[in-house]
Specification:
Blueprint lengths: L1 E7 H10 L12 H10 L3 E10 L5 H9 L3 E5 L1 E2 L2 E2 L1 H15 L4 E5 L6 H9 L3 E6 L6 H6 L1 E4 L30
Length: about 180
């Protein structure tokens, strides 16, 4: 099945930041393992898009994210509101209306994506949300397939300077929740 993935980098950034660590969006998540997990479900990601407010990410990280196959769209803020969700909603809607995809993967737990997901489902497109379980709107987990992002977080990125896990859930090297 052909699929498209849209990553709300702001959403991931805020969750990881709340864990108390410096955030490296290109290194904190095992993106290629996530791609493999989707591939084992029969999904061929033909579109990979990553969105983030430009001041939240270093240019080297942008280059690294592009190196693993994402196109990166820098977004902006208007007042105190980041427009990342808006950029994703417009691009994802255009994709479901004009591209031949069978699966839409949204990497965010934000319920702002609910109307988009419902519209995709109406058009016969399977929808999968990928996010941190505790930060994902229950309605998204109830209505759509859901993959917890925590098993794809690099364990060493969740350790403080003394080696203690600072995450809400610990994962082992195989990506299983402990």
């Amino acid at each position: 099945m052909k699929g498209a993935i849209f990553v709300d980098g702001d959403n991931i950034f805020m969750h990881l930041k709340n864990l108390g660590k410096r955030v490296y969006l290109d290194k904190d998540i095992e993106w290629e393992d996530l791609f493999l997990a989707l591939e084992t479900r029969g999904i061929d990601l033909i579109i990979k898009k990553f969105y983030i407010v430009s001041h939240l990410i270093h240019p080297v990280a942008v280059n690294n994210i592009m190196h693993i196959g994402f196109s990166v769209t820098p977004t902006e803020t208007y007042g105190d509101k980041a427009l990342t969700d808006d950029y994703i909603l417009i691009d994802a809607m255009e994709t479901i209306l004009t591209k031949s995809i069978e699966v839409l993967v949204i990497v965010s737990g934000d319920k702002d994506y609910l109307p988009l997901a419902r519209k995709a489902r109406e058009r016969g497109i399977n929808v999968i949300f990928v996010s941190f379980s505790e930060n994902t709107a229950e309605v998204l987990k109830r209505e759509f397939d859901f993959i917890d992002l925590m098993p794809f977080v690099k364990l060493e990125e969740l350790l403080d300077s003394t080696g203690y896990v600072i995450a809400t859930q610990a994962v082992d090297a195989g990506g299983d929740i402990l």
